[in-house]
Design goal:
It contains no helices and 24 strands. The protein has 293 residues and is an all-beta fold.
Amino acid sequence: MVLTKQYDRHAPEKVFGIIGSGNANNIALLPSNTKSTSRRIFVPACESVLLWDLKTHSQINTFVDEITSSTVLKKKIREEAIIVSVSPNGKHLAVGYQTGMIKIFSITQNETTVNFHGHKSTITTLTFTQDSATLISGSKDTDIIAWDLITEAGLYRLRGHKAPITKVIIMTSQSVLISSSKDMTIKFWDMSIQHCFHTIVTHRTEVWSIALAHDRYLITGCSDNELRFFALRSTTTDEDDSFMFPPRKDEKTSEDQVPLHVQSIGSLVRKSKQRVSSLNVDNDSRILACHVS
């Protein structure tokens, strides 16, 4: 007697394609001050960037980089998108690629407006200034570059880190740029004179992400399970912060030489032992989101 077993027949019904690529390390939200009535996000997907509508769960648009010619391999290749950033005015989309190139897309016209060449390795972080006129980029080549979107040229290059840049953020209250790196340091840069005026060297592992709360507190995330908090005191205000910053007799730097002072105020131990991938603070600085790898 032969026993047979019947199986249900399954056939594919829908193909969704690529939602996001594994090498990409972020997504970008379209600012709420734009004409769009729904929340939309930009997601790197291989050589393209996809625009998704969170309300309808549908893909709206695709931003594709142009096919470039490789002089080394003598054949046409496509560059993989790694990181994206949207300008505060919602008009420009900056895309960093694995080859070190940065492309600026017009969101309304869906076309490339300018290409920036200055990095030698993968772009790891991008951020716009509040006026949407300047783009700051960080790369695995350890350099930080400021780009002018109006003149379509580089403004200056910041060097000082010994390992790949992991995050750059800009303070809204003053012209200070903060950068983190795998060299276990965090640097504070005065953007007006392109000078590093302070370096945090207390971390024992690679610093993977940083976040600001009200421009008064800096939160850092590393490869360990500890989130560290630092208080930032501006030297241009007259606020009474003697409790947070007690007088120090060994202070050698006069306040008129640096735009702010930095002091460690504590730490928070996470339950997860996985390294931090990104830190984000909401607009009211009441909620801290920690994404781990």
